[in-house]
Amino acid sequence: MGYKIERLQQVIKFKVSQVLLKDIADPRLGIVTITRVKLAKDLSQCVVYYSVLGEDGERSRTAHALANARGFIQHEVAGALSTRTTPHLEFEFDPSIEGSVRIAEMLRRELGTTEPKDDDSA
Fold first, then answer.
1. Domain 3-114 belongs to what architecture?
2. What pLDDT is recorded for position 108?
3. Which of 27, 44, 74, 85 is the most exposed place for a label (fewest CB within 10 A)?
4. Which residues, given as ranges, of the chain have pLDDT below 50?
5. CB 74, CB 86: distance < 8 Å
């Protein structure tokens, strides 16, 4: 991947994060983290991956809020880019964070049950 694409992805990720944090007051929007951005080589499409703190209902409400705000977010991203065209933004849930948390929790439980106890009698 070229430097230009990587740089544009960084700009888009930062701008989308800022817009969600400062400019959108939708109560359906949960605690959202933009995890990564994948920009097409021709700059026509951009998939914004996000994670949400909460359960399935929270994830669903956040997906609807992002879909409704997509046009506004895309307009704000356009102002931050120095390109002739603005990529069409799509939002996709990124399950990798949840998977990492689940694995960490399983490891914590496993290590908690198999850890040797300190013996102060020595």
1. 2-Layer Sandwich (3.30)
2. 81
3. 27
4. 122
5. yes
pTM of the complete model: 0.78
Tens-place pLDDT, residues 66-94: 999 999 999 999 999 988 889 999 999 99
Residue appearing with tokens 């895309």: 74
**Distance from the first to the final alpha carbon of the chain:** 59
Domain ranges of the chain: 3-114
